[in-house]
Amino acid sequence: MSRTGFLGGIASAPAEAAGTQAEAKIWLGRAARVGWPEILFWLLPVLAFFLLPDRLPLMSEIAILSLFALSLDLILGYAGIVSLGHAAFFGLGAYTAGLLARHGWSEPLSGLALATAAAGLLGFLSSFLVLRGSDLTRLMVTLGVAMVLAELANKMAWLTGGADGLVGMEVGPILGLFEFDIFGRTGFVYATVVLFLLFCVARYLVHTVFGLTLRGIKGNRLRMEAIGAPVSRNLIAVYTLAAAYAGAAGALLAQTTQFVSLDVLEFHRSAEVLLVLIIGGTGYLYGGLVGAVLFRVAQDWLTGFTQQYWLFWLGLILVVLVLVSREGLKGLFDLARRRLQRGAGP
Predict the structure, then answer these.
(1) Domain residue spans in the chain?
(2) In Å, how far from its chain's centre is CA 294?
(3) Torsion angle of alpha carbons 235, 236, 241, 244, nearest 10°?
(4) Which of 131, 172, 256, 257 would bridge 106 by S-S if both were Cys, CB 3.0 to 4.6 A apart?
(5) Radius of gyration of the chain (CA)
(6) Residues 222-240 pLDDT 10s
């Protein structure tokens, strides 16, 4: 290459970089736009509140599971961090909120904030272990953290209630105005509003440079390190955020039911939320929400249909879904859209 060509290439590099950044901003701006399908989706809980008043406790569980699935999607769908122990943060949030309510801290919003912070702190501390090694190492470390917490909760019965559960919780009214009722109205609105607000935060983050960097890390971590992206820092940040979201979900469960048991730390919690993401699809936030709705509704219906064998039918549905589409319902929708586009083409 001639000297002129070499210098010309160097001179054009900043311009190309600036063009790439501008294109990235345009793409992020388009992706962040709110469309009518999203607006209609968030109108569904409002309609459900008025049309299904006798099913509000079930819908509260759906909102809490949706937030839990959203937290896992942040690390699995966007950063590619696999976990089998996400229940550790869910359970810590539940026990933190429960212990606060049991010992006189009855204000729910501050209790929710403290439980979220406690889970986020655990996520930050454990992230340095989780982010080391391969996917198999991460699976074992996350599972180990959850198992340690579950055993601590079981042995420290003087604090957690052990196998009998944490009872005696007194959760005050929200903002001093809205008391929790046996029909689940306040609990449903409370859980749905918290889900919506945290979803908006997550939606904003994934449509920023931070979210774009996470996608790049998931696609090719070595390449992102080679171009100078702060890979470890971004992974620690998203893992801490996901842990905080899971802790918030656990706190919501404790406050709306006013009971916490060892069940919140069991392995099936982590497996359940992973199944929810398999159903809904990963990497687009709404997958966890749609998956939570379908999973809980299917569980409720199948339990009423065949109480003893509902797991068989649910497993069969999951196997068929995975065989048809590796990306869950998201994959099915994408496949249907592509076929419609081919059918409408010349």
Answers:
(1) 53-261
(2) 16
(3) 140
(4) 172
(5) 22
(6) 888 888 888 889 999 999 9
Summarised one tens digit per residue, pLDDT across range 33-58 is 777 888 898 999 999 999 988 889 99
Tokens of 158: 């003087």
Question: Do residues 115 and 97 make contact, with C-beta atoms less than 8 angstroms apart?
Answer: yes
Higher model confidence: residue 15 or residue 147? 147
Q: Is the dihedral of CA 123, 125, 131, 132 positive or negative?
A: negative
Neighbours of 53 (CB within 10 A): 12
For residues 230 and 225, what is the distance between their CA atoms, to the nearest angstrom?
7
Mutual angle of helices 56-76 and 36-51, in 10-degree steps: 150
Helix ranges (H only) for 184-327 are 185-206, 209-219, 221-226, 231-257, 267-280, 286-305, 310-324
Cβ(168)–Cβ(104) under 8 Å? no
φ, ψ dihedrals at 166, nearest 5°:
-90, 115
Residue type, 345: G
C-alpha dist (Å) from residue 171 to 50, 60, 108, 181: 25, 16, 6, 11
| Long-range CB contacts (within 8 A, 24+) of 6-11 | none
The pLDDT tens digits for 283-324 are 888 888 998 998 888 888 877 777 677 777 777 877 777 777
